[in-house]
Write a structure and sequence with these properties.
Keywords: Membrane, Signal, Transmembrane, Transmembrane helix. This protein has 179 residues and is α+β, with helices and mostly antiparallel strands. Helix content is 31%, strand content 37%. The protein has a domain of 103 residues: Sandwich (Immunoglobulin-like), CATH 2.60.40.10. The longest helix is centred in the last third of the chain and has 33 residues.
């Protein structure tokens, strides 16, 4: 009887240990900022293709996760699946990259990349902050529009031409009267 309860206790402890180890998922969070309207990439390494890797990209929305895209590989062939628009998956033998196209402020949040092919799913997390680009500074006073410059130069040329004409006319008239 004692051996049976000891065995049961050992099984319970082993189960608890394996559950705690599974709960201890690699959750390092990488924080990144991106300007609104730009494309944003999230990359992670793929295990060897002969292990049929599978990667799931999600956006954490409150207590739920919204799937964005998944890469599924079988027999050395990989296929991307998309669940939302504005995303693109690129992959090679080493990496898989999720590209968020023309990101908006509403896409700020926590993104997870989950390796579904491993015994213990590992998450790689990205805290993405989308910011609005700063407003363009007002034009400087030394940089004016070309039409204003042309009009100013034209006005100066006309005034100079009138002054030269008046001086020339007075000189010519004075020489004509003295003859």
């Amino acid at each position: 009887m004692i051996k049976m309860s000891l065995l049961t206790l050992l099984a319970v402890l082993l189960h608890f240990y394996s559950w705690a180890a599974a709960a201890d998922v690699d959750n390092d969070i990488v924080s990144q900022e991106v300007m609104e309207g730009n494309n944003f990439t999230i990359s992670t390494k793929l295990p060897k293709l002969d292990t049929d890797p599978q990667s799931l990209f999600t956006l954490v929305n409150g207590t739920s996760e919204v799937p964005l895209a998944q890469l599924t590989c079988h027999f050395l062939k990989c296929l991307p699946n998309y669940w939302t628009s504005g995303v693109l998956l690129e992959f090679n033998e080493e990496n898989v990259t999720l590209i968020l196209l023309k990101i908006t402020r509403s896409q700020t949040g926590l993104y997870k990349v989950r390796d579904l092919s491993s015994q213990q799913p590992k998450d790689k997390c990205f805290n993405v902050t989308v910011y609005v680009p700063p407003p363009e500074p007002p034009p400087s006073s030394r940089y004016t529009d070309a039409p204003v410059i042309v009009a100013t130069i034209g006005f100066i040329v006309i005034v100079v031409a009138i002054i030269i004409g008046v001086i020339f006319f007075k000189c010519r008239r004075a020489s004509f009267i003295s003859d």
